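Lab notebook page, bench 4
Experiment: in silico fold of construct C2
Operator: M.H.
Input chain length: 187 residues
Purpose: comparison with the prior construct
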Amino acid sequence: MADLDQTALLVIDVQRAFEDAGFWGTRNNPDCEANVAALIGAWRSSRRPLVYVRHDSVEPGSPLAPGLPGNAFKDVVTGDPDLLVTKHVNSAFYGDPDLHGWLQARGIGSIAVCGITTNHCVETTARMGANLGYEVLFALDATHTFDRTGPDGERLTADELARATAASLHGEFATVVRTDELVRSGG
């Protein structure tokens, strides 16, 4: 595992809009937020680089749009980060300010990712991070997602989607880890 003292924690899109089951549907992993809070606490107490990422949607009707209550971070996202990135797309690497430039300027070669949703913005950021040369730790139990219907009309549960993300990423784009592993390893 990467040297965690040289690893930035990216807390991705842990925003209030994702509490709306009527909009998003059924979610998995009720422990996500507690695990995100544990990671933030571990990174903050160890004075490691902490990055918050917020999705400022430009899609009409999105509860994640700036100015709406759903755009705000959930209560578990506390204190000031070292960097706040805002984005309109799935990858934190296409946000403002430039995440890659910020990490490179500080000599940071590894990232740990957590947040919402497992198979969208967190996975996309992990894949892109790996393609940019970062060692990526994917804290699966500090993410959650929602059930989705595929193009064939079949419904996939959030747990199935999370397992598929883990299987696709592990060993190729990231090392899939648990929150307690990251906290125990120096948190």
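Observations: The helical segments are 21-24, 32-45, 99-105, 118-131, 158-169, 179-184. The chain has one domain: 4-184.
Next step: discuss at group meeting.
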